[in-house]
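User: Structure with NAP, tokens only please.
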Amino acid sequence: MERWSGRVALVTGASAGIGAAIVRELVKNGLIVVGLARRAELVEELSAQLKGAPGKLHAFKGDASKEEDILAAFDWIKKNLGRIDVLVNNAAILHMLSLMDENTSQWKQMFDLNVLGLSICTREALKLMKEKGVDDGHIIHINGVLGHTLGNLPGLIPYVTTKYAVTVLTEGLRRELVQLGSKIRGHGEELTY
Ligand SMILES: NC(=O)c1ccc[n+]([C@@H]2O[C@H](COP(=O)([O-])OP(=O)(O)OC[C@H]3O[C@@H](n4cnc5c(N)ncnc54)[C@H](OP(=O)(O)O)[C@@H]3O)[C@@H](O)[C@H]2O)c1
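Assistant:
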């Protein structure tokens, strides 16, 4: 991890759960981390807890399902930190829905965050990496077993559909980077559900 000290990471969904845990590890290993979440005050608290660690955590308030918020985050990163080296696409939501439920807005929320938000963050990270000559960056999509198998719990099909999309986006990203001859790496991290 030493060569990553001082380098810049963006973690989406940094206010709780796995995103907050990832942030802790990155800051402990010396990275300068931007934690994006709607509840930025929780990221501020985490930042205070991490005072004295080798790295630093900046809180950025935003909704990772909204393109304008994502663009604002990247704009802030470019102006204040000058580059990006690592993107962790962690933010996602799960609504339990039957295919019979008339709840289109929850379908949209899941697709807007889990699929489109992740894709826009990826695009913007790659753009900034290219602009700043970062050729050893990492883009990590947090996925799960449900990105590869349907399981048999009721109400999960819409969420599972978004996670299958993440599997395709991970492999698609890897292929595009190989085609470009880029050393930037695209990864999928598989958690258990
Ligand atoms: N937990 C598991 O067992 C498990 C298993 C497999 C896969 N996963 C995957 O792991 C990732 C994290 O899961 P988790 O369990 O840690 O989730 P979580 O505890 O529910 O936390 C979700 C995080 O995402 C953020 N978030 C939600 N909507 C957002 C939005 N519109 N814009 C920005 N941030 C948003 C939340 O922050 P705010 O509410 O402050 O915005 C929060 O920080 C997800 O991709 C999930 O699919 C988790």
